[in-house]
Amino acid sequence: MTAAEPARATDPAVAAAPTAGRVVTCYSLFDAFMTRCGFTDLTDGMYEGDPDRPYEAAQARQAEALLDRAGVTRGSRLLDIGCGYGRVLRAARDRGAKGWGVTVSPEQVRRNAAAGLNVRLENYKHLGPEWDGQFDAVIANGSLEHFAQPEDAAAGRDDAIYRHLFSTVHRLLDPETAGARFVTTAIHFRRRPDPADLLRPPGAFRRDSEEFHFARVLSQGFGGWYPVRGQLERCAEGYFRLVDEEDGTEDYRLTSEACLAASRRRIHSARGVPIWLRAVPLMLRRPVQAARLYRCVFGSESWNWQFRGAPAPTVLLRQTWERVG
Ligand SMILES: C[S@@+](CC[C@H](N)C(=O)[O-])C[C@H]1O[C@@H](n2cnc3c(N)ncnc32)[C@H](O)[C@@H]1O
């Protein structure tokens, strides 16, 4: 491998792996509950030191900042990997850019289509050569946390998955676009847990332990795994270099606390009854994950636990990557 010619070899098993069912189910449940509580943003807002900034304003600010970092302007072609309900795509459209989104959630595809956004039901790992060179910028805002699962980490596959991610985004970007950017926001472990522990039932651990909370969030509720600081940079070698990094952990804490308080008020009140009733068919189809997600979010508050304390157990990093090679 030379500096001008990055390694293209990535593990073919990564590209062939099916989408994790619990990630898809988690977003079906989110769609049933969170969107009906008024939440269609699924990542951190940006408060910039102002904890009183309204939730919506913080979310809007984050979308604009990510687009700025990705260099998205009028006419840019943007791919949003894991686009959720399309907040970033809408902000890109408002700039006169052309946006495409991919998500593994059928419910999100339906809502985005109704909003006139160009969103496909695709796992980015399966994007074929027809996508190559089509974009000036790529954003993955809060989706990277789902790309590896605890089982992958236990099998030593997390590096291969992140390397495959960077190689995929590298080929999706137009080689003619000077300084093409890939912008990510991703939760990182402050200290990498033993993935084998996360595959055990959370009840095997003390209720206040990292293993308990991470098992609830990553193995049971949401489905995912986090990198540690420096891991993505190592896996990006030959494809991207890191040009900017920001710690958004406190922002994610503020976002998650606002979201938990408002959704708890809503679904635990009389106004929540229609939400529960409409969710019954889904909960009957997915009773185990529905119960696990509920316990994780509202019971042990394991999602919010991740950002509480000093230092918090996780770090949210907003990173900007520039294509090399
Ligand atoms: C936490 S949400 C973030 C959504 C959105 N970016 C936002 O800011 O609100 C994670 C998103 O990643 C998507 N996702 C997870 N794994 C994916 C994959 N392998 N390929 C494409 N999308 C994926 C989910 O469907 C969901 O839309």
Task: Please describe what this structure looks like.
The chain is of the alpha/beta class. It has one domain: 3-Layer(aba) Sandwich (Rossmann fold). It has 14 helices and 7 strands. The chain has a 7-stranded mixed sheet with strand order 3-2-1-4-5-7-6, sandwiched between helices. Strand 1, helix 4 (87-94) and strand 2 form a beta-alpha-beta unit. Helix 3 crosses helix 4 (87-94). It is globular and about 55 Å long. Residues 1-8 have low confidence and may be disordered. It binds S-adenosylmethionine. S-adenosylmethionine (SAM) binds next to helix 2 and strand 2.
| Integer count of domains | 1
Class derived from helix and strand content: alpha/beta
- Measured between the Cα atoms of the first and last residue, the distance is 11 Å
- Spatial extent as radius of gyration: 19 Å
* Largest sheet strand order: 3-2-1-4-5-7-6
CATH homologous superfamily title: Vaccinia Virus protein VP39
Largest sheet: 7 strands, mixed
